[in-house]
Design a protein that fits this description.
This protein has about 475 residues and is α+β, with helices and mostly antiparallel strands. The protein folds into two domains: about 230 residues, Cytochrome Bc1 Complex, Chain A, domain 1 (2-Layer Sandwich); about 180 residues, 2-Layer Sandwich (Cytochrome Bc1 Complex, Chain A, domain 1). About 40% of the residues lie in helices and about 15% in strands. It is built from 16 helices and eleven strands. It has a six-stranded mixed β-sheet, with helices on both faces. Helix 1 crosses helix 7, helix 3 runs parallel beside helix 8 and helix 10 crosses helix 16. The protein is globular and about 65 Å long.
Length: about 475
Protein backbone atom coordinates (compact mmCIF):
# COMPACT_ATOMS: atom_id res chain seq x y z
CA UNK A 1 0.00 0.00 0.00
CA UNK A 2 1.28 3.45 -0.87
CA UNK A 3 0.57 6.16 1.65
CA UNK A 4 0.31 9.64 0.19
CA UNK A 5 0.16 12.91 2.02
CA UNK A 6 -3.38 14.13 2.56
CA UNK A 7 -3.40 16.38 5.61
CA UNK A 8 -0.91 18.24 7.74
CA UNK A 9 2.38 16.59 8.51
CA UNK A 10 2.14 16.47 12.32
CA UNK A 11 3.97 13.90 14.46
CA UNK A 12 2.43 14.07 17.92
CA UNK A 13 3.05 12.85 21.44
CA UNK A 14 1.00 12.76 24.65
CA UNK A 15 0.13 15.98 26.45
CA UNK A 16 -1.51 16.75 29.76
CA UNK A 17 -5.27 17.18 29.49
CA UNK A 18 -4.90 20.46 31.35
CA UNK A 19 -3.55 22.27 28.31
CA UNK A 20 -6.55 21.22 26.22
CA UNK A 21 -9.08 23.16 28.28
CA UNK A 22 -10.11 26.78 27.95
CA UNK A 23 -11.56 28.84 25.12
CA UNK A 24 -9.64 29.81 22.00
CA UNK A 25 -9.15 33.40 23.08
CA UNK A 26 -7.28 32.51 26.27
CA UNK A 27 -3.57 31.81 25.99
CA UNK A 28 -2.79 28.26 27.15
CA UNK A 29 -0.22 27.30 29.68
CA UNK A 30 3.08 26.12 28.30
CA UNK A 31 2.93 22.33 27.82
CA UNK A 32 4.60 20.58 30.72
CA UNK A 33 7.45 18.22 29.76
CA UNK A 34 6.32 14.62 29.76
CA UNK A 35 8.57 11.65 30.34
CA UNK A 36 7.39 8.87 28.08
CA UNK A 37 7.59 5.38 29.50
CA UNK A 38 9.67 3.87 26.70
CA UNK A 39 12.48 1.35 26.87
CA UNK A 40 15.06 1.92 24.11
CA UNK A 41 17.79 -0.56 23.22
CA UNK A 42 20.12 -0.56 20.21
CA UNK A 43 21.41 -4.06 19.44
CA UNK A 44 24.99 -4.73 18.43
CA UNK A 45 23.86 -5.12 14.80
CA UNK A 46 22.34 -1.61 14.85
CA UNK A 47 18.65 -2.47 15.22
CA UNK A 48 16.81 0.13 17.31
CA UNK A 49 14.07 -1.31 19.54
CA UNK A 50 11.47 0.83 21.35
CA UNK A 51 9.01 -0.69 23.83
CA UNK A 52 6.19 1.36 25.38
CA UNK A 53 4.25 -0.69 27.98
CA UNK A 54 0.50 -0.06 28.28
CA UNK A 55 -1.27 -2.68 30.44
CA UNK A 56 -4.82 -1.37 30.00
CA UNK A 57 -5.83 -4.09 27.50
CA UNK A 58 -4.15 -7.40 26.52
CA UNK A 59 -3.24 -6.15 23.03
CA UNK A 60 -0.22 -4.61 21.33
CA UNK A 61 0.82 -2.66 18.25
CA UNK A 62 3.97 -3.91 16.51
CA UNK A 63 5.61 -1.50 14.04
CA UNK A 64 8.70 -2.02 11.90
CA UNK A 65 10.22 0.82 9.87
CA UNK A 66 12.89 0.51 7.19
CA UNK A 67 14.61 3.73 6.23
CA UNK A 68 14.02 3.32 2.51
CA UNK A 69 11.34 4.86 0.32
CA UNK A 70 10.71 5.93 -3.24
CA UNK A 71 13.45 8.58 -3.15
CA UNK A 72 16.12 5.86 -3.11
CA UNK A 73 15.10 4.63 -6.56
CA UNK A 74 16.45 5.77 -9.91
CA UNK A 75 15.00 5.67 -13.40
CA UNK A 76 14.52 2.03 -14.29
CA UNK A 77 13.77 0.94 -10.73
CA UNK A 78 10.88 3.24 -9.76
CA UNK A 79 8.38 1.22 -7.75
CA UNK A 80 10.95 -1.28 -6.48
CA UNK A 81 10.50 -0.27 -2.82
CA UNK A 82 6.74 -0.57 -3.04
CA UNK A 83 7.01 -3.87 -4.97
CA UNK A 84 9.21 -5.19 -2.17
CA UNK A 85 6.62 -4.13 0.41
CA UNK A 86 4.07 -6.36 -1.36
CA UNK A 87 6.48 -9.28 -1.60
CA UNK A 88 7.27 -9.17 2.12
CA UNK A 89 3.85 -10.78 2.67
CA UNK A 90 4.47 -13.61 0.19
CA UNK A 91 6.57 -15.96 2.23
CA UNK A 92 10.02 -16.54 3.70
CA UNK A 93 12.09 -19.56 4.74
CA UNK A 94 10.39 -20.56 8.00
CA UNK A 95 6.91 -19.21 7.28
CA UNK A 96 6.15 -19.95 3.64
CA UNK A 97 3.67 -18.47 1.15
CA UNK A 98 0.35 -17.61 2.80
CA UNK A 99 1.49 -18.37 6.34
CA UNK A 100 2.34 -14.85 7.50
CA UNK A 101 -1.13 -13.32 7.15
CA UNK A 102 -2.93 -16.54 8.05
CA UNK A 103 -1.09 -17.05 11.32
CA UNK A 104 -1.67 -13.46 12.43
CA UNK A 105 -5.36 -13.48 11.52
CA UNK A 106 -5.90 -16.91 13.10
CA UNK A 107 -4.65 -15.45 16.37
CA UNK A 108 -7.02 -12.50 16.20
CA UNK A 109 -4.59 -9.96 14.76
CA UNK A 110 -4.36 -7.78 11.65
CA UNK A 111 -1.42 -6.71 9.52
CA UNK A 112 -0.67 -4.15 6.82
CA UNK A 113 2.07 -1.90 5.45
CA UNK A 114 2.70 1.31 3.55
CA UNK A 115 5.43 2.88 1.45
CA UNK A 116 6.16 6.60 1.19
CA UNK A 117 8.86 8.70 -0.43
CA UNK A 118 10.92 8.46 2.75
CA UNK A 119 10.17 5.13 4.46
CA UNK A 120 8.53 1.71 4.40
CA UNK A 121 6.49 0.69 7.44
CA UNK A 122 4.95 -2.67 8.43
CA UNK A 123 2.46 -2.78 11.28
CA UNK A 124 0.31 -5.23 13.20
CA UNK A 125 -2.37 -5.09 15.86
CA UNK A 126 -2.15 -8.34 17.79
CA UNK A 127 -2.90 -9.99 21.15
CA UNK A 128 -0.10 -9.22 23.59
CA UNK A 129 0.56 -12.93 24.01
CA UNK A 130 1.39 -13.16 20.29
CA UNK A 131 4.22 -10.59 20.39
CA UNK A 132 7.06 -13.18 20.73
CA UNK A 133 5.79 -15.09 17.69
CA UNK A 134 5.34 -11.80 15.82
CA UNK A 135 9.02 -11.16 16.40
CA UNK A 136 9.80 -14.59 14.95
CA UNK A 137 7.66 -13.87 11.89
CA UNK A 138 9.33 -10.51 11.28
CA UNK A 139 12.85 -11.82 11.86
CA UNK A 140 12.20 -14.63 9.37
CA UNK A 141 11.12 -12.40 6.51
CA UNK A 142 13.84 -9.81 7.20
CA UNK A 143 16.48 -12.51 6.75
CA UNK A 144 15.02 -15.09 4.38
CA UNK A 145 12.51 -13.50 1.97
CA UNK A 146 11.68 -15.92 -0.83
CA UNK A 147 10.56 -13.67 -3.71
CA UNK A 148 9.08 -16.82 -5.24
CA UNK A 149 9.00 -16.31 -9.07
CA UNK A 150 5.36 -17.23 -9.69
CA UNK A 151 4.19 -15.11 -6.79
CA UNK A 152 6.43 -12.29 -7.99
CA UNK A 153 4.73 -12.14 -11.38
CA UNK A 154 1.23 -12.40 -9.94
CA UNK A 155 2.00 -9.56 -7.55
CA UNK A 156 3.20 -7.42 -10.46
CA UNK A 157 -0.36 -7.55 -11.82
CA UNK A 158 -1.75 -6.62 -8.41
CA UNK A 159 0.50 -3.56 -8.38
CA UNK A 160 -0.62 -2.55 -11.86
CA UNK A 161 -4.21 -2.70 -10.62
CA UNK A 162 -3.28 -0.65 -7.56
CA UNK A 163 -1.68 1.96 -9.80
CA UNK A 164 -4.85 2.16 -11.90
CA UNK A 165 -7.00 2.49 -8.79
CA UNK A 166 -4.82 5.19 -7.20
CA UNK A 167 -3.80 7.17 -10.29
CA UNK A 168 -5.48 6.49 -13.63
CA UNK A 169 -8.96 5.88 -12.16
CA UNK A 170 -8.65 8.34 -9.29
CA UNK A 171 -8.75 12.03 -10.27
CA UNK A 172 -7.54 13.09 -6.82
CA UNK A 173 -4.67 10.59 -6.88
CA UNK A 174 -3.70 11.54 -10.42
CA UNK A 175 -3.70 15.25 -9.57
CA UNK A 176 -1.49 14.55 -6.56
CA UNK A 177 0.88 12.44 -8.67
CA UNK A 178 1.27 15.15 -11.30
CA UNK A 179 1.76 17.82 -8.66
CA UNK A 180 4.57 15.83 -7.06
CA UNK A 181 6.16 15.14 -10.45
CA UNK A 182 6.13 18.82 -11.42
CA UNK A 183 7.07 20.32 -8.05
CA UNK A 184 9.96 17.89 -7.51
CA UNK A 185 10.95 17.47 -11.14
CA UNK A 186 14.56 16.38 -11.45
CA UNK A 187 14.83 15.31 -7.79
CA UNK A 188 14.30 11.95 -6.03
CA UNK A 189 10.87 13.14 -4.85
CA UNK A 190 9.63 13.62 -8.41
CA UNK A 191 9.02 9.90 -8.94
CA UNK A 192 5.92 7.81 -8.47
CA UNK A 193 6.18 5.70 -5.32
CA UNK A 194 4.09 2.99 -6.96
CA UNK A 195 6.36 3.22 -9.99
CA UNK A 196 6.17 4.27 -13.62
CA UNK A 197 4.46 1.83 -15.98
CA UNK A 198 7.57 1.10 -18.05
CA UNK A 199 9.68 0.44 -14.96
CA UNK A 200 7.05 -1.79 -13.36
CA UNK A 201 6.82 -3.78 -16.57
CA UNK A 202 10.57 -4.36 -16.76
CA UNK A 203 11.41 -4.61 -13.04
CA UNK A 204 13.10 -7.95 -12.38
CA UNK A 205 13.17 -10.23 -9.37
CA UNK A 206 16.92 -9.66 -9.11
CA UNK A 207 16.44 -5.89 -8.91
CA UNK A 208 13.88 -6.20 -6.12
CA UNK A 209 16.08 -8.71 -4.30
CA UNK A 210 18.92 -6.22 -4.54
CA UNK A 211 16.76 -3.59 -2.82
CA UNK A 212 15.93 -6.14 -0.15
CA UNK A 213 19.54 -7.12 0.53
CA UNK A 214 20.72 -3.50 0.48
CA UNK A 215 18.13 -1.78 2.65
CA UNK A 216 16.43 -4.45 4.78
CA UNK A 217 19.17 -4.62 7.36
CA UNK A 218 18.92 -4.22 11.15
CA UNK A 219 20.97 -1.02 11.22
CA UNK A 220 18.46 0.50 8.78
CA UNK A 221 15.40 -0.44 10.84
CA UNK A 222 13.40 0.54 13.91
CA UNK A 223 11.04 -1.79 15.79
CA UNK A 224 8.46 -0.09 18.01
CA UNK A 225 6.06 -2.06 20.23
CA UNK A 226 3.34 -0.51 22.38
CA UNK A 227 0.86 -2.40 24.51
CA UNK A 228 0.52 -4.91 27.31
CA UNK A 229 4.15 -6.04 27.31
CA UNK A 230 6.90 -6.04 29.91
CA UNK A 231 10.13 -4.59 28.45
CA UNK A 232 12.35 -6.58 30.80
CA UNK A 233 10.72 -9.85 29.77
CA UNK A 234 10.35 -9.02 26.08
CA UNK A 235 13.77 -7.54 25.35
CA UNK A 236 15.72 -10.84 25.72
CA UNK A 237 13.26 -12.46 23.30
CA UNK A 238 13.76 -9.70 20.74
CA UNK A 239 17.53 -9.94 21.10
CA UNK A 240 17.32 -13.68 20.51
CA UNK A 241 15.14 -13.25 17.39
CA UNK A 242 16.94 -10.30 15.80
CA UNK A 243 20.41 -10.23 17.32
CA UNK A 244 22.15 -12.62 14.91
CA UNK A 245 21.02 -10.80 11.75
CA UNK A 246 24.13 -9.23 10.18
CA UNK A 247 24.32 -5.47 9.73
CA UNK A 248 24.74 -3.83 6.35
CA UNK A 249 27.95 -3.40 4.39
CA UNK A 250 28.46 -0.05 2.67
CA UNK A 251 24.92 1.22 3.30
CA UNK A 252 26.03 4.33 5.17
CA UNK A 253 28.11 5.50 2.23
CA UNK A 254 25.37 4.65 -0.28
CA UNK A 255 22.73 6.59 1.65
CA UNK A 256 25.04 9.56 2.14
CA UNK A 257 25.47 9.78 -1.62
CA UNK A 258 21.73 9.52 -2.23
CA UNK A 259 20.98 12.06 0.50
CA UNK A 260 23.39 14.67 -0.84
CA UNK A 261 21.54 18.02 -0.53
CA UNK A 262 22.49 18.80 -4.13
CA UNK A 263 20.11 16.05 -5.25
CA UNK A 264 17.18 17.94 -3.74
CA UNK A 265 17.85 21.43 -5.05
CA UNK A 266 14.81 22.96 -6.79
CA UNK A 267 14.71 22.34 -10.54
CA UNK A 268 10.99 22.79 -11.18
CA UNK A 269 9.49 25.51 -13.40
CA UNK A 270 7.61 27.53 -10.81
CA UNK A 271 5.23 30.02 -12.38
CA UNK A 272 4.18 27.42 -14.95
CA UNK A 273 0.72 25.99 -15.59
CA UNK A 274 -0.12 22.43 -16.63
CA UNK A 275 -3.40 20.84 -17.71
CA UNK A 276 -4.02 17.08 -17.92
CA UNK A 277 -6.80 14.83 -19.03
CA UNK A 278 -8.29 12.83 -16.15
CA UNK A 279 -11.61 11.11 -15.52
CA UNK A 280 -13.17 13.86 -13.38
CA UNK A 281 -16.19 15.51 -15.10
CA UNK A 282 -15.76 18.63 -12.95
CA UNK A 283 -12.36 20.41 -13.03
CA UNK A 284 -9.98 19.98 -10.11
CA UNK A 285 -6.82 21.97 -9.48
CA UNK A 286 -3.73 22.22 -7.29
CA UNK A 287 -1.68 25.34 -6.56
CA UNK A 288 1.76 24.30 -5.28
CA UNK A 289 4.50 26.44 -3.71
CA UNK A 290 7.99 25.51 -2.54
CA UNK A 291 7.66 24.01 0.93
CA UNK A 292 10.08 23.10 3.69
CA UNK A 293 11.82 19.93 4.84
CA UNK A 294 10.74 18.32 8.11
CA UNK A 295 12.17 19.44 11.42
CA UNK A 296 12.97 23.12 10.87
CA UNK A 297 11.15 25.93 12.67
CA UNK A 298 9.86 27.13 9.31
CA UNK A 299 8.26 23.72 8.77
CA UNK A 300 6.37 24.07 12.05
CA UNK A 301 5.22 27.57 11.12
CA UNK A 302 3.98 26.34 7.72
CA UNK A 303 2.09 23.55 9.48
CA UNK A 304 0.35 26.13 11.65
CA UNK A 305 -0.32 28.39 8.65
CA UNK A 306 -1.93 25.57 6.66
CA UNK A 307 -4.03 24.57 9.64
CA UNK A 308 -5.16 28.17 10.27
CA UNK A 309 -6.27 28.82 6.70
CA UNK A 310 -7.60 25.45 5.66
CA UNK A 311 -8.60 23.14 8.52
CA UNK A 312 -12.27 22.18 8.55
CA UNK A 313 -15.54 23.68 7.44
CA UNK A 314 -15.11 26.76 9.61
CA UNK A 315 -11.73 27.65 8.11
CA UNK A 316 -11.05 30.83 6.17
CA UNK A 317 -10.79 29.03 2.83
CA UNK A 318 -13.98 26.99 3.34
CA UNK A 319 -15.95 30.07 4.35
CA UNK A 320 -14.59 32.14 1.46
CA UNK A 321 -15.06 29.63 -1.35
CA UNK A 322 -17.42 26.84 -0.27
CA UNK A 323 -19.79 27.84 2.51
CA UNK A 324 -21.27 31.07 1.21
CA UNK A 325 -24.27 32.26 -0.77
CA UNK A 326 -22.47 32.02 -4.11
CA UNK A 327 -19.81 29.29 -3.73
CA UNK A 328 -16.95 29.21 -6.19
CA UNK A 329 -15.74 25.73 -5.18
CA UNK A 330 -17.35 22.55 -3.90
CA UNK A 331 -14.22 21.67 -1.92
CA UNK A 332 -10.94 23.33 -0.93
CA UNK A 333 -8.01 22.35 1.30
CA UNK A 334 -4.49 23.44 2.17
CA UNK A 335 -1.59 21.22 3.20
CA UNK A 336 2.01 21.58 4.22
CA UNK A 337 3.85 18.36 3.35
CA UNK A 338 7.24 18.27 5.05
CA UNK A 339 9.46 15.56 3.59
CA UNK A 340 12.85 14.49 4.87
CA UNK A 341 14.80 16.70 2.44
CA UNK A 342 12.23 19.04 0.95
CA UNK A 343 8.55 19.96 1.04
CA UNK A 344 5.53 21.35 -0.78
CA UNK A 345 2.86 23.81 0.40
CA UNK A 346 -0.26 23.33 -1.69
CA UNK A 347 -3.93 24.12 -2.19
CA UNK A 348 -6.42 21.64 -3.65
CA UNK A 349 -9.80 22.66 -5.04
CA UNK A 350 -12.74 21.34 -7.01
CA UNK A 351 -15.01 23.65 -8.99
CA UNK A 352 -18.77 23.90 -8.62
CA UNK A 353 -20.60 22.13 -11.42
CA UNK A 354 -20.68 24.38 -14.47
CA UNK A 355 -17.80 26.55 -13.24
CA UNK A 356 -15.06 27.83 -15.52
CA UNK A 357 -11.52 26.71 -14.69
CA UNK A 358 -10.07 29.86 -16.26
CA UNK A 359 -12.36 32.10 -14.21
CA UNK A 360 -11.64 30.22 -11.00
CA UNK A 361 -7.89 30.25 -11.66
CA UNK A 362 -7.91 33.99 -12.25
CA UNK A 363 -9.99 34.73 -9.16
CA UNK A 364 -8.17 32.28 -6.86
CA UNK A 365 -4.71 33.43 -7.88
CA UNK A 366 -5.82 37.03 -7.51
CA UNK A 367 -7.17 36.33 -4.03
CA UNK A 368 -4.02 34.59 -2.77
CA UNK A 369 -2.32 37.90 -2.00
CA UNK A 370 -5.12 38.70 0.47
CA UNK A 371 -5.08 35.44 2.42
CA UNK A 372 -2.37 36.62 4.83
CA UNK A 373 -4.18 39.76 5.97
CA UNK A 374 -7.75 38.41 5.82
CA UNK A 375 -7.39 34.88 7.17
CA UNK A 376 -4.90 35.20 10.01
CA UNK A 377 -5.50 36.61 13.48
CA UNK A 378 -4.69 35.90 17.12
CA UNK A 379 -7.94 34.05 17.80
CA UNK A 380 -7.47 31.69 14.84
CA UNK A 381 -3.87 31.04 15.91
CA UNK A 382 -4.94 30.08 19.42
CA UNK A 383 -7.75 27.90 18.08
CA UNK A 384 -5.20 26.13 15.85
CA UNK A 385 -2.83 25.50 18.74
CA UNK A 386 -5.67 24.03 20.82
CA UNK A 387 -6.66 21.77 17.93
CA UNK A 388 -3.07 20.57 17.50
CA UNK A 389 -2.81 19.78 21.21
CA UNK A 390 -6.14 17.95 21.18
CA UNK A 391 -5.19 15.88 18.15
CA UNK A 392 -1.88 14.99 19.77
CA UNK A 393 -3.55 13.80 22.95
CA UNK A 394 -6.14 11.77 21.05
CA UNK A 395 -3.56 10.04 18.87
CA UNK A 396 -1.41 8.95 21.75
CA UNK A 397 -4.24 7.20 23.58
CA UNK A 398 -3.96 4.21 21.24
CA UNK A 399 -1.17 1.65 21.07
CA UNK A 400 -0.88 2.21 17.32
CA UNK A 401 -0.60 5.96 17.78
CA UNK A 402 2.09 5.56 20.41
CA UNK A 403 4.14 3.02 18.43
CA UNK A 404 3.90 5.00 15.20
CA UNK A 405 4.82 8.31 16.86
CA UNK A 406 7.85 7.16 18.83
CA UNK A 407 9.04 5.26 15.76
CA UNK A 408 8.78 8.29 13.44
CA UNK A 409 10.36 10.64 15.97
CA UNK A 410 13.25 8.22 16.39
CA UNK A 411 13.67 8.07 12.61
CA UNK A 412 13.52 11.80 11.94
CA UNK A 413 15.15 13.21 15.08
CA UNK A 414 16.92 10.17 16.56
CA UNK A 415 14.87 10.90 19.67
CA UNK A 416 11.64 8.98 20.29
CA UNK A 417 10.48 11.64 22.79
CA UNK A 418 10.92 14.58 20.43
CA UNK A 419 7.15 14.99 20.22
CA UNK A 420 7.18 16.85 23.53
CA UNK A 421 9.61 19.34 22.01
CA UNK A 422 7.42 19.61 18.91
CA UNK A 423 4.48 20.66 21.04
CA UNK A 424 6.62 23.32 22.68
CA UNK A 425 7.61 24.61 19.24
CA UNK A 426 4.01 24.68 17.97
CA UNK A 427 2.94 26.46 21.13
CA UNK A 428 5.70 29.08 20.73
CA UNK A 429 4.78 30.08 17.15
CA UNK A 430 3.70 33.72 17.08
CA UNK A 431 1.15 35.54 14.97
CA UNK A 432 3.94 37.67 13.49
CA UNK A 433 5.88 34.57 12.42
CA UNK A 434 2.84 33.08 10.74
CA UNK A 435 1.96 36.29 8.90
CA UNK A 436 5.56 36.82 7.78
CA UNK A 437 5.86 33.29 6.47
CA UNK A 438 2.47 33.53 4.79
CA UNK A 439 3.61 36.67 2.99
CA UNK A 440 6.94 35.10 2.06
CA UNK A 441 5.46 31.98 0.54
CA UNK A 442 2.23 33.30 -1.03
CA UNK A 443 3.21 36.80 -2.11
CA UNK A 444 6.91 36.57 -2.87
CA UNK A 445 7.15 33.24 -4.70
CA UNK A 446 5.44 31.83 -7.78
CA UNK A 447 3.44 28.57 -7.65
CA UNK A 448 2.82 25.78 -10.09
CA UNK A 449 -0.83 25.56 -11.19
CA UNK A 450 -2.11 22.13 -12.26
CA UNK A 451 -5.63 21.23 -13.34
CA UNK A 452 -7.32 18.01 -14.45
CA UNK A 453 -10.58 17.52 -16.37
CA UNK A 454 -12.17 15.00 -18.71
CA UNK A 455 -12.73 17.77 -21.29
CA UNK A 456 -9.02 18.26 -21.83
CA UNK A 457 -7.49 16.45 -24.85
CA UNK A 458 -6.83 12.82 -24.03
CA UNK A 459 -3.36 11.43 -24.43
CA UNK A 460 -2.72 7.67 -24.03
CA UNK A 461 0.12 8.22 -21.56
CA UNK A 462 -1.85 10.79 -19.54
CA UNK A 463 1.51 12.29 -18.64
CA UNK A 464 2.10 14.85 -21.42
CA UNK A 465 2.05 18.58 -20.74
CA UNK A 466 -0.70 20.39 -22.61
CA UNK A 467 0.38 23.93 -21.75
Amino acid sequence: MVQKKIGKNFRFTALLALILSGCATIAPKKPAPILLNVKKVVLDNGLTILIAPNPKLPIAAYYTLFDVGGRYEVKGTTGATHFLEHMMFKGAKKYGPGEFDTLIERNGGATNAYTTNDATVYYQTIPASFVPQMADLEADRIQHLLLEPIGFESERQVIFEERKMRYENSPDGFLYLMMMKKVFEGTPYGQSVIGDVDDLTALSRDQVMDFFKTYYTPDNAIVAIAGDVDPETLMPILKEKYGAIPKSVGLTELKAKRDDPANYEWKAKFGAEYSYYATNPIPKFAVAFKGEKAGTRRAFILDVLAYMLGNGGSSYLAQKYVRNAAPLLSDVSLSSYNLRHSGVFYFNGELMEGGSIDKVKTQFMGDVKNFCKEGLNARTLQKTKNQIMSQAYTQMKSNAGMASTIMMNEKIYHDYSYGTKEMEIYNSVTETEVKNECNNILNKTAPIFISTWDKYPKNPSALVELK
